[in-house]
Write a structure and sequence with these properties.
Elements: H1 2-8, H2 16-21, H3 30-34, H4 40-61, H5 67-90, H6 97-112, H7 124-142, H8 146-169, H9 175-189, H10 202-206
């Protein structure tokens, strides 16, 4: 238990300097490598612009009484997407070496170096194209009102990524924040086949993938 708490980093911030120095290299090209990282201030600035822009689009092109409900639907869709991506894509057991390489680039490198502050947030080279596809899907499914669903989805995503960053970079001492951090750190330090959700922890309960104790390492 003490060893788990020590790895959890409770009560202190991570030693960022040494972690950045040890960063796993994903590409030989410096240009491509630069696209795989994003500092927290840049992430916050990007979405502080984009989220209000999406809201304006929704208000202008799809004003509707159902906006609050559609936002909730989008957030719920994100919640399950977060769980499903982490469980079935990021931890896919590939046989092909090429597929294994891509999974390492997408997520495996995070487990190799979990506290790298420049890789605790999704870089825009990935998040923006995926967001565009989600927006097209939402609008294609229900028309212009799909922008509200998309906004709820993206609000859920940004909240998830910020919580994920905080789990790795901050002590998170309040009761609820500590629950979030412990839940995710058990995924990293006890068993990767479990605790797939970060903000939507209920999915781990519902789908029987919750790691309930530091002793649950099997």
């Amino acid at each position: 238990m003490l060893d788990f708490r020590r790895r959890l980093g409770m009560g202190r911030r991570m030693d960022r300097t040494s972690l950045v120095r040890e960063r796993a290299r994903l590409f030989g090209s410096p240009f491509l490598e630069a696209l795989t990282v994003i500092p927290a201030p840049a992430f916050i600035a990007l979405w502080a612009i984009l989220l209000p822009a999406i809201l304006v689009c929704a208000l202008v092109f799809a004003p509707t009484f159902w906006a609050p409900a559609l936002l909730v639907v989008g957030a719920l869709v994100w919640s399950f997407t977060e769980y499903a991506l982490h469980r079935y894509v990021f931890h896919f057991e590939a046989r092909s070496e090429r597929v294994k390489r891509w999974i390492y680039i997408i997520h495996g490198n995070h487990h190799a170096d979990p506290n790298d502050p420049l890789r605790n947030l999704m870089p825009p080279v990935v998040s923006l194209p995926v967001a565009a596809l989600v927006w097209l899907a939402c609008v294609g499914a229900i028309g212009a009102a799909g922008t509200w669903v998309f906004l709820g989805f993206m609000l859920g995503y940004v909240a998830y990524d910020l919580v994920h960053y905080a789990c790795h970079q901050w002590p998170m001492k309040s009761r609820f924040a500590r629950v979030l951090k412990v839940h995710h750190m058990r995924h990293h330090h006890l068993r990767v086949r479990g605790n797939y959700a970060i903000t939507g922890m209920a999915w781990d309960r519902l789908l029987a993938t919750r790691i309930v104790s530091p002793r649950d390492r099997v």
